[in-house]
Structure prediction request, 304 residues.
Amino acid sequence: MSKKNIELDEIHSRLIFRLFQTSNVMHRSGTLALNSVGVTSQQWSVLGALSRPKVEAGMTVNDMCRYLMVSRQSLSLMLNRLEAVGYVKRIQDKRDQRSKRIVLTESGREALNEINHLMQVFFEKVMKGLSRDDQISCVHYLTRLRDNMSID
Amino acid sequence: MSKKNIELDEIHSRLIFRLFQTSNVMHRSGTLALNSVGVTSQQWSVLGALSRPKVEAGMTVNDMCRYLMVSRQSLSLMLNRLEAVGYVKRIQDKRDQRSKRIVLTESGREALNEINHLMQVFFEKVMKGLSRDDQISCVHYLTRLRDNMSID
DNA sequence: GCATTAAGGTCAATATATTGACATAAATAA
DNA sequence: TTATTTATGTCAATATATTGACCTTAATGC
Prediction:
């Protein structure tokens, strides 16, 4: 009458659970570290995405959704907040009139520089005890997990 | 007049950013995988915590906050929802009248068994390409990151 | 006994996250 | 040219997450 009880592979559960915990802690202490700038860890990810040299001309909303792996609706609210404090701007794409390009403002660039000072301290604390090779391995593992978990 | 521009260590940014992405994807596709049971990935973490043999007698709310690394207020809402569908129960602690012990109900145990069937499939997909040693290494790295990021 | 501390619940405000739905405008395909 | 698709924005409902505050009750320290 009842299905056999399933025992999950312990290492699998542990890995997924560790991801849970680490993600919770990251958002909390990341946002705390950025407290003086008044930016959340998620908002930092948006600013960081825009600061890459290859996106000098800005990113479209859809591109950024795919890059950050959040829904358009979630991103839209973050962009509204960042636009309200003047860190980003939505500008019309010349070639495609439907598209907007999200760009960093001068004020956003200054904020990001301040953020990076704070992040440098944060990163040093976070990476303590992990060699460069460890960090590279960890990125590889996370990339693999991310891709395996992706819907498409 | 302006501080020197900070260039963050690329591997550090990448690692943290990968954690962002992976956590986003995990919650989305984890919840999707559990869709038929009507439980979110976060609620699964609560049920999972309670299913461990060492917590046969239940966990206090504070213990579970520390374990899941979420605030009491967040946990409280999750417990309310799980209690509303009958998967968990808050029972008085005999020894400490202030404490409640969160326990899995029979219905919760059945749901968890169904969840575990779904999770087994999910885990197989997620862990593809990662050897057991890889998984163990990844857990070690995440544990290190989690502890380094913890406030206390 | 009385003051303090601890455990838990809840309210508020805010930010993030999802899906689904609907609207508009513009590009593209038939 | 018309139909469809694409890009974006927004509303709704819901779940998760934070901090801070306040309340009750109970254990503990003095």
Summary: Chain B has one domain: 10-126. Residues 27, 31, 40, 42-43, 70-71, 73-74, 77-78, 81, 96-99 of chain B lie near DNA strand D (CB under 10 Å from a C1'). Chain B touches chain A through 65 residues (CB under 8 Å).
